[in-house]
Amino acid sequence: MATSKVSRQEETLRALLDQINVQEALLNELRLSVTPVETEPCSDPVAYHRQLCCLTATYQSLTNSQPYLPIGDFVLPDLLAIRSTSQVIRETQVAKNDCELSLQDVKRRLEEEQADNEDAKLIQAEIKLRISSLEQEIKINNKKSPHDLERENFLELQRKKNRYDNETTDLMLAFNSFIEQHLAPMLAVEELGGPIVGQIIDIHDEILQGEFNSQGKAKKVKLQESKRQRRISQIWSTQPPNEEKYDEKCAAAAEMKSLIKELLNKMSDESINFPDAYIKLHRESAAARFLVRSKIAQFHPRDASRLRLIDFGNEIDD
């Protein structure tokens, strides 16, 4: 089938080339037998009219004549149709891809607009509720005396203060519990030369009773109680008077609580601007390093013995 199609194409090509040669020979004979046609318009009106008549007659004769095409198994129309069809298919595929991209973009923008519309509806509903509540409150307050309004405002402020105090107490209890149960053992391990806070989570008392080597690994040998207490005193100072059991974990917890309290008191001091609310550290402790790593506090840019809480409204100093 393919061989037959190629043969027909070759025959068609030869027929077209023969016809071209015949037409070129006739054209050459015609050029030799007639006077060449002027290609530029003649200035003489009569000659110019003859030129137009000649061109018109030639054009009409060529228009009315049928173009030469071989008959029978001539495959040129099929080839032209295939080429046109292939071009239409390619253009259609390109247009289809463009339409799909445009459709995806329209769908995405539609989803965004729908989400914005839903948000706007929710905001509108909340604003209407708030307006209605304020209008109702104004109507009620207009019926009350200034003394009653003042008393109600005072009671409301008192309730808020009590609620904030209770929440603050709960937060402090939770904060102290976190320090004592979770953070203090890790701080103690770091102070004793072990891994930094967070690298070891499950810490037993046996780990705190021993020592750590230069690689930060715990030794299996336990210290005597007297030597252990001397180590605690050297690192965290002496034992508080009301502490019955004062080990490394208690010492680390007490140091962290004291450091946080000192930082908060310094920050709340009205006589000091917040950027200058630094405290003086007696030593570079694991507690101070933990606060700095956690982005809770920062050292002074030129003095690592000074520390302050971070102002979360501004950027961290370099």
Features:
two-stranded antiparallel sheet; mainly alpha; single chain; 7% strand; three-stranded antiparallel beta sheet; 318 residues
Task: Describe the 3D structure.
The protein has 318 residues and is mainly α. Among the domains are: 31 residues; 140 residues, no CATH class. The protein has a 3-stranded antiparallel β-sheet with strand order 3-5-4. The chain has a two-stranded antiparallel ribbon with strand order 1-2. Helix 4 packs across helix 7. The longest helix has 67 residues. The chain is elongated and about 135 Å long. Keywords: Centromere, Chromosome, Coiled coil, Nucleus. It is found in: Chromosome, Centromere; Nucleus. Belongs to the CENP-K/MCM22 family.
